[in-house]
């Protein structure tokens, strides 16, 4: 179920701050640019507050953020709910021991990595990214966490592109978004 | 499909993710507000060889806050002149030898992010310094600057501006090229993100040679922004990045020797 909170009065303000850039990174793609949201301190704060209000008191000990825009939204949420922040990164960025999860792109494959030892079995985790499209990246992120025995409580994104049906690709895990782009 | 890349043999094995605290009692970790050389670095190197398979080692030694001239130094709570939160921050940072290539001692802040109090303290130390300084822009350098910049921006009521590698930002950007050890790289910022006359802070996790920070300073100054200070969690003083910033002040929490 799309719990995208459209009754909250802050949502409209957030939605208007997201800029759509046509034909980026390639023709036909309507790119959802959240950087304009970050330029509005109130809208940015409201965004974080909406997630924090949802997740504080849920015993979440891990917020995993997907490189790179998940690094912008994940840490403020983690700090506010008292969870640790775990960056999920492209290959060879994390030093030391990592585990990797490969995932499929439109053309080709990519890989997401997480530090060994960052998350312990039984921990309750949130996965954060700015946007869910096909759900491939979020799926890889969840797999990494589940492989080390963490429990995925929810995936949280600012934006969903429902036509790409990413929500159905999350192996039954719940998804919470603030805004849908049709 | 999974690729196991140097994974631990048992998922439940408790790798000591934090550096061992055996450096805490050594004299060189007593906080001083002044630089001092890491005389024990040779013995540390040896220790590193031995500890390498455990993937952790005692963390950074000198603990230091630097105060710029243009921003008034905050009061230090402890009598040796250092904020008591610094010690824990420093010991939460993990050093990984020979990453990304042999000879480089990589300062890994991800272990700091796993320590909720130390991460909170890190942000608080910057926020305490910069709130009430009329800073309207926090610029964070991709990607680890994205972790520290936004919490600071949110707390001081500033906007956050990501400074990115090429071709990541959509729409109109301005670019600044900068030198690497071998070759060059480019940093980009959105046109219109900042306005002339705004006061800015630049954030990254670490300053090494200062090349990246310099590029960020130039990008902001090109559009008429006043860079108040550069702020990093870690400085590698031997690489003299501070000098490369010229007249721009630098504030760091911790030295990596």
Automatic annotation (TrEMBL), chain A:
Pathway annotation from the record: Purine metabolism; AMP biosynthesis via salvage pathway; AMP from adenine: step 1/1
EC number(s) stated in the UniProt entry for this protein: 2.4.2.7
Keywords: Cytoplasm, Glycosyltransferase, Purine salvage, Transferase
One GO cellular component term: cytosol
MF-aspect GO terms: adenine phosphoribosyltransferase activity
GO biological process terms held by the UniProt record: adenine salvage; purine ribonucleoside salvage
Chain ranges passing through the membrane: none
CDD domains found in the cross-reference section: PRTases_typeI
Gene3D superfamilies: 3.40.50.2020
All copies of domain Phosphoribosyltransferase, residue ranges: 41-163
Subcellular locations according to the entry: Cytoplasm
Domain of life: Eukaryota
Main localization (coarse): cytoplasm
InterPro entries given in the database record: Ade_phspho_trans, Adenine_PRTase, PRTase-like, PRTase_dom
Catalytic activity: AMP + diphosphate = 5-phospho-alpha-D-ribose 1-diphosphate + adenine
Assembly behavior: Homodimer.
Family assignment from sequence similarity: Belongs to the purine/pyrimidine phosphoribosyltransferase family.
Protein name per Swiss-Prot or TrEMBL: adenine phosphoribosyltransferase
Lineage: Eukaryota, Viridiplantae, Streptophyta, Embryophyta, Tracheophyta
TrEMBL record, chain B:
Enzyme class: transferase
Sequence ranges assigned to domain Phosphoribosyltransferase in this UniProt record: 119-248
A single cellular component GO annotation: cytosol
Xref: InterPro entries: Ade_phspho_trans, Adenine_PRTase, PRTase-like, PRTase_dom
Compositionally biased intervals (Low complexity): 37-52
Gene Ontology process terms (BP): adenine salvage; purine ribonucleoside salvage
Catalysed reactions, semicolon-separated: AMP + diphosphate = 5-phospho-alpha-D-ribose 1-diphosphate + adenine
EC identifiers of the protein: 2.4.2.7
Chain segments carrying region Disordered: 33-83
Listed pathway(s): Purine metabolism; AMP biosynthesis via salvage pathway; AMP from adenine: step 1/1
CDD domains the UniProt entry points to: PRTases_typeI (cd06223)
Localization terms from the record: Cytoplasm
MF GO annotations: adenine phosphoribosyltransferase activity
Domain of life the protein comes from: Eukaryota
Family: Belongs to the purine/pyrimidine phosphoribosyltransferase family.
Oligomer and partners: Homodimer.
Name of this chain's protein: adenine phosphoribosyltransferase
């Amino acid at each position: 179920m799309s719990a995208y909170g459209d009754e909250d009065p802050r949502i409209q303000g957030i939605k208007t701050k997201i800029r759509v850039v046509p034909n980026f990174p390639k023709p036909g793609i309507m790119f959802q640019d959240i950087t304009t949201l970050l330029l509005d301190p109130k809208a940015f704060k409201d965004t974080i507050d909406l997630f924090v209000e949802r997740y504080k008191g849920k015993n979440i000990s891990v917020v995993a953020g997907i490189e790179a825009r998940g690094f912008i939204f994940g840490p403020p949420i983690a700090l506010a709910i008292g969870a640790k922040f775990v960056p999920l990164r492209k290959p060879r960025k994390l030093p030391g021991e990592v585990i990797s999860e490969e995932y499929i792109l439109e053309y080709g494959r990519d890989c997401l990595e997480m530090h060994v030892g960052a998350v312990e079995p039984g921990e309750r985790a949130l996965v954060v990214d700015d946007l869910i499209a096909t759900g491939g990246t979020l799926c890889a992120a969840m797999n990494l966490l589940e492989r080390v025995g963490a429990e995925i409580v929810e995936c949280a994104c600012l934006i969903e592109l429902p036509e790409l049906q990413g929500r159905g690709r999350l192996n039954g895990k719940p998804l919470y978004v603030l805004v849908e782009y049709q | 499909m999974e690729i196991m890349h140097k994974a631990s043999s048992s998922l439940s094995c408790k790798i000591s993710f934090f550096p061992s605290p055996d450096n805490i009692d050594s004299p060189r970790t007593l906080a001083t507000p002044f630089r001092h050389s890491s005389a024990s670095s040779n013995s540390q190197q040896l220790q590193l060889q031995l500890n390498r398979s455990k993937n952790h080692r005692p963390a950074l030694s000198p603990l230091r806050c630097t105060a710029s001239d243009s921003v008034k130094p905050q009061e230090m709570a402890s009598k040796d002149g250092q904020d008591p939160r610094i010690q824990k921050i420093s010991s939460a940072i993990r050093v990984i030898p020979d990453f990304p290539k042999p000879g480089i001692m990589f300062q890994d802040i991800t272990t700091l992010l796993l320590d909720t109090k130390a991460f909170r303290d890190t942000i608080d130390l910057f926020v305490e310094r910069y709130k009430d300084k009329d800073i309207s822009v926090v610029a964070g350098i991709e990607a680890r600057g994205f972790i520290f910049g936004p919490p600071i921006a949110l707390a001081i009521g500033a906007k956050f501006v990501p400074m990115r590698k090429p071709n990541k930002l959509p729409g109109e950007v301005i670019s600044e090229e900068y030198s690497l050890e071998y070759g060059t790289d480019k940093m980009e910022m959105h046109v219109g993100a900042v306005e002339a006359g705004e006061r800015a802070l630049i954030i990254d996790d670490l300053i090494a040679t200062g090349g990246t920070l310099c590029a960020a300073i130039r990008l902001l100054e090109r559009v008429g922004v006043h860079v108040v200070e550069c702020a990093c969690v870690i400085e590698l003083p031997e690489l003299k990045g501070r000098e490369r910033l010229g007249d721009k002040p630098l504030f760091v929490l911790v030295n990596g020797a």
